[in-house]
Amino acid sequence: MSHSILSLLILIVSVFFFVTRLIPLGITAVLASVAMATTGIITFNEAFSSFGSDTVMLILGMIVVGNALTETGCTDIIGKALIKIPGISKSEKLFLIVVITVVAMLSGFMSNTATVAIFLPLIASIAKTSAGTITKKNTFMAVGMASIIGGNLTLAGSTPQIVAQGILTQTDGCEPMTFFLLSKAALPLMITMLVYFFTMGYILQKKTFHFDETADKYENAAICLIDNKKAAIAGLIFLFCVIAFATEIATLGTIAIVAACACIITGCITVDRAAATMDWTSIMVLGGSLGFSKGLAQSGALQMLADNLINLVGAFATPFRLFALFLILTSLIGNFLSSTATAAIMIPIAIKVALEMGSNPTTFSIGIVIACSLSLATPVSTPPLTMTLIGGYRFSDYLVIGGILSIACMIIALVTLPLIYGL
Fold first, then answer.
1. What is the pLDDT of residues 367-394, one digit of tens each?
2. Which ranges constitute the DSSP H helices of 277-338?
3. What are the CA-CA distances from residue 266 to residues 66, 72, 179, 245, 275 (Å)?
4. What pTM did the predictor assign?
5. Neighbour tally for 414: CB within 10 Å
6. Domain limits at 272?
7. Which of 22, 67, 216, 407 is the most exposed place for a label (fewest CB within 10 A)?
8. Phi, psi angles (nearest 5°) of residue 198
9. Domain count, the chain
């Protein structure tokens, strides 16, 4: 059996386990990479070298920095400052817009899951003392969606762009993304989201969420103890990261690892806590997916898929139409599959098609990343949205509120991405 057929079979089996989640996502990705090496499609060195890549170091380091901000109480300081904004506790709509903005901005630099985990208890506490002015049901879902869309502001905001970065780095004819390259795509989507929840989205929530406020585990959640000195240090380290990423004084992974080490050395987070709070699933999915994509490329499977897709579409196959097709398919698939798994599957194929068409593979990759964040019609694509189920929502609520937002943002993305990055 040819290597291209073998790698396609491994792809099919991997997709099955990604969808069914019969085994954890990280294990699926690693085993797919192992299968590529075991069958001789790639070497074992190639299968596992990605775990030490600059891309993996970036996500590992920024997870430590983000967790240090949480451990020291730096993020709680931001939350408490938010509450003090004049008039914010007297208008749910104003509260919603301010919280969405803050959550989206924070999610660009730290785990969006951690951001949501911080803000849900904060919102629950405010709602409990607001005499019904602020409600969890009109806020929780929007916060989850804001963290996902805001995660596109930087290269470290979410896993799909890290997957894209790794694949672009190891693919001939492609250039890696800079740290803030995605922000040009994310800002129009953030504006769209803010307008939506200030107008139609807020009205739809009021009409759709007929259930009573739920009593949940967040109401009595304890806010972590704040160490002002360490919070200030963690904040300065975070500021160093932002400046270093912007000025590109070193590779992104180097900057992130240096910052993570600084957090540990200064006592902002201990080694044990850094290990305990590490998102090992993301690391495993990322490293495994990069090895897996090497196998797909070297076996010729990606070439086969790209050629067949272009031939299948035929005269319809213009760069923009294929770009739009990839974005729409990715967004639809992402409603039923992990956004990370969706990115790992779709990005190598999209890059190959772009190269075959003489288009910009970076634009196609960015499009896939953005589309992964627009799978908002169900709460299953990513943990930040799943966490909001505690607000008492039904699946149909996500279809109504998230589905309309997804369509609006998809239209904006299809218009703006080609203009910003070029096809």
1. 999 999 999 988 877 778 877 887 888 8
2. 280-299, 301-313, 319-334
3. 15, 11, 25, 21, 16
4. 0.76
5. 17
6. 3-421
7. 22
8. -85, -20
9. 1
